[in-house]
């Protein structure tokens, strides 16, 4: 990082930061994410401006002979990265068993680092980082959708047979490729019915529906009176 920079160099750095934040923001905004064009552009530009300010302060004297203070210029970008961690945490939302906003939070942190690179004069590193980030956001989502994911859900099956029927239900679930994580049986004396409650886990493609095929098989059993299904979703 040179100690002396002119306005032409500053303009190039800030322009590249605007382009980087704009490209990432256009991709996120087109998918309806909270951190869209303006958010990512401002984050990247602010990070770049902070590094330009650090560059301009390099020529400032540090610790004097009769002073106890030390000018640590890198505390400014480090503080910005820490602050972006709090902003990113605010973008993460948990809805039941599903966690949303993790990619949005990581995108904000990523454009901050890219902005720091451009602002600090590491133009090649910032450009490579921008290119890799665009590839990850634009193309790896299709790859991720083809990968099988672990899913969890809760199942309640009410039937009129005795408590031993829960063993048959458990065997049907295991035969369909599910893993019974937890299970229990309840008896309603008023209705004279048993309820088998369990939490199941199975693997499925990301684009598959949240109601697996084995639900229809269980619902068609002659002794099943009522069936309730609560999908939990994945954690990505």
Please summarize what this structure is.
Helices cover 50% and strands 22% of the residues.
Structural write-up:
With about 240 residues, the chain is of the alpha+beta class. The chain has two domains: about 130 residues, no CATH class; about 80 residues, ACT domain (Alpha-Beta Plaits). The strands form two sheets. Strands 4-5-3-6 form a four-stranded antiparallel beta sheet, with helices on one face. A two-stranded antiparallel sheet has the order 1-2. The radius of gyration is 27 Å and the shape is elongated. The protein starts with 6 loop residues before the first helix and ends with a strand. The model has no long low-confidence stretch (mean pLDDT about 80).
> Tally of extended strands?
6
Strand content: 15-25%
Head-to-tail CA distance between termini? 38 Å
Structural class: alpha+beta
Strand order of the largest sheet: 4-5-3-6
Low-confidence runs: none
Helix and strand pattern: HHHEEHHEHEEHE
Radius of gyration: 27 Å
Number of helices: 7
């Amino acid at each position: 990082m040179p100690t002396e920079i002119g306005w032409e160099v500053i303009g190039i750095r800030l322009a590249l930061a605007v382009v980087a934040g704009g490209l990432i923001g256009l991709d996120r905004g087109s998918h309806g994410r909270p951190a869209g064009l303006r958010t990512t552009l401002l984050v990247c530009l602010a990070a770049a401006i902070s590094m330009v300010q650090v560059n301009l302060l390099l020529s400032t004297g540090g610790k004097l002979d009769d002073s106890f203070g030390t000018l640590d210029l890198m505390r400014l970008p480090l503080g910005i990265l820490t602050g972006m961690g709090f902003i990113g945490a605010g973008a993460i939302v948990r809805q039941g068993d599903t966690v949303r906003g993790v990619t949005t939070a990581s995108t904000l942190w990523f454009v901050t680092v890219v902005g720091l690179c451009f602002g600090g004069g590491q133009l090649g590193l910032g450009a490579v980082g921008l290119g890799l980030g665009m590839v990850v956001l634009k193309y790896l989502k299709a790859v991720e959708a083809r990968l099988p994911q672990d899913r969890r859900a809760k199942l309640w099956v009410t039937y009129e047979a005795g408590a031993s029927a829960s063993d048959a239900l458990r065997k049907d679930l295991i035969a369909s490729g599910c893993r019974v994580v937890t299970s229990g049986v309840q008896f309603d004396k008023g209705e004279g019915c048993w309820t088998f409650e369990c939490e199941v886990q199975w693997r499925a493609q990301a684009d598959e529906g949240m109601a697996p095929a084995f639900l229809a098989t269980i619902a068609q059993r002659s002794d099943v009176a009522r069936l309730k299904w609560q999908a939990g979703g994945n954690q990505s």
